[in-house]
Amino acid sequence: MRSYFKLALKVLGRRKFFTFISLFGISMTLVVLMVATAVLDNFFAPRAPESRFDRVLTISRVTQRGPHDSESMEAGYALLDGWMRPLHDVERTAIFSTVSSTAIYRGDSRIDTDVKHTDGDYWNILDFHFIEGRPYSSKEDAAGAHVAVITDDLSRKLFDTASPLGKSFTLEGDSYTVVGVVPRVSLTRMAAYSDVWIPIGALKSSDYRHNYLGGFVGLVLAHSSSDFPRLKAEYKARLRTFPLDRKTYTEIATGLDTPFEALARDLTQNRTDSGAWILIGVLAAVALLFMTLPVLNLVTLNLSRIMERAPEIGVRKAFGASRPALIGQFVIENIVLTLFGGVAGFILTVVALRIANQFSVVPGAVFEVNARVFAYGMLIAVFFGAFSGVYPAWRMSRLDPVLALRGGAA
Amino acid sequence: MIRLENVDKVYRTERVETLALHNINLDVAQGEFVSIMGPSGCGKSTLLNLIGLLDRPTGGALSLDGGKINGAGDKALAKLRNEKLGFVFQSFHLVPDLTVVDNVEIPLLYRKIAAKDRRKMALAALDRVGLASRVHHFPTQLSGGQQQRVAIARAIVGKPRILLADEPTGNLDSQMGEEIMEILHGLNRDEKTTVVMVTHDERFAKQTDRIVRLFDGRQVA
Lengths: 410, 221
Known about the structure:
The complex is a heterodimer. Chain A is α+β, with helices and mostly antiparallel strands. Chain A has two domains: 2-45 and 277-405, no CATH class; 61-256, no CATH class. Helix content of chain A is 49%, strand content 17%. Chain A is built from twelve helices and 13 strands. In chain A, strands 5, 6, 7, 8, 9, 10 and 11 form a seven-stranded mixed sheet that branches. The longest helix of chain A has 43 residues, at 276-318. Chain A is elongated. The model of chain A has no long low-confidence stretch (mean pLDDT 89). By secondary structure, chain B is an alpha/beta fold. Helices cover 35% and strands 26% of the residues of chain B. Chain B has helices at residues 44-51, 74-84, 100-109, 115-128, 144-156, 174-190, 202-206, and strands spanning 2-12, 17-28, 33-37, 59-64, 67-68, 85-88, 162-166, 194-198, 210-215, 218-219. Chain B has a six-stranded mixed sheet with strand order 6-7-8-3-9-10, with helices on both faces. In chain B, 48% of the residues are buried. The chains are: A alpha+beta, B alpha/beta. Chains A and B meet through helix 1, helix 9 and helix 12 of A and helix 2 and helix 3 of B.
């Protein structure tokens, strides 16, 4: 292995133009894939204020299906209150509304704002860092208190640099008192994102309490992710008592999902489960398709090297190299090359993401290349290396040793 | 040690059939030094490739060390080449990206030998051919004679019982050719290595135990 590695480095060092062309293609491909990985990581990996999301399940999309009609929308408060909240042996549950866009006026200026209604336990599942003040409690929610948590960004727009605590602003005709300030949240964090958070109890109408569908998302904080199968099964079992409108519908499709599964359920509208595997398959297929062209390019370059290295292959065969040994050698060489491409791609990805962050491409989102993204990137690089190396290596290993020693190809 | 019985080798393309070797019968005993001679294109190298298991006969039987080779798979042939045979080529065929010592280690890479022991064996083989002081040079930094000595070190590092040399002096001047022949004779004499050598040079052929002569793919002596 060490000998193959040494040889790989020497071969790459000697054929500088080939190495440059290959590395350029590999690193550019990996930059795109690593940026995509960083974006996916930003969406789904547990991070503040969703640090506990490795043990959180959500209920968002609910679909009712019948022979002629189907209806698909967010969960309703009544469904979450009646079928999610009573789940056994969970750490906490919370309900929040989907974000609605509205405007706050300060004098003549209009400030476009996203608002989310939450219960008190929302703040116990999400771990917001409070710059000032505090979250509102379940009691305040139950009492319908007109209090609000706002982002530092909105605070500056509403109150300039002064502390907003205890100050009020008007939202859709009602006045709310600021009790807490949190840092701006990334649009990519579905559960956490908003500009203003106010208690569900402060909603003008209590009709939402009777709606099974529409406008709300549920969160379940499990003691551990190992509880997920049990909780999913319990939720499914409980749904048998759901008052389905039997005249129109025959089934209800919903589930306790991880954030990734919830997105998959939304996108795939799969009938049997969340469709997470379909989404993973689609993402993998897109990545594969994206890699196909640079892989073919590298395969062609590698094949052109067969002629160049034919005598070496002949010598190795003459001295006892079996086909698997030769395949191993050339695949390792290719993986070494792609790992260099991976490192170059990683550095370029860091630069690209810094630029993206500087220009706030996604408001509030800070894309970073952490150890997880690096590990995925290197995994992609190894896969890329194996993918583009196996066929040329197989062709090389099949060279006739006599022809190879004369410098000819198969 | 080496036995060929009624061996034929035919090269076939879509249109042409070329009889490269016909009805070759050859016995080489353990410790013998045999040279193969004949005009260009008479099948000398083809015969050496068959003995070296780099090619397969079209007809007849080949055995090495008492074991029949016909029908052996690629993996078995690779193992036999690795353990029983060593090759020396006219144009040396050293890997240009590897140092002298790394080149010599090549046959040992395909055996289960620790890196430290591989290095020790390679250095001993280089010492045997008088190149202990050039171990970290690259092939292009050596003269033709030195490169051929590296190739011999590579051929003998795994202590094969048979050494196959395809015109080992063909690319060298007469003095270097003499030096290479001296090394081959030394290996044959001291290690009892069986040597089969293809050569055009009558002078070197006469130094061997026996000369096999080929003409148009047939054994004439």
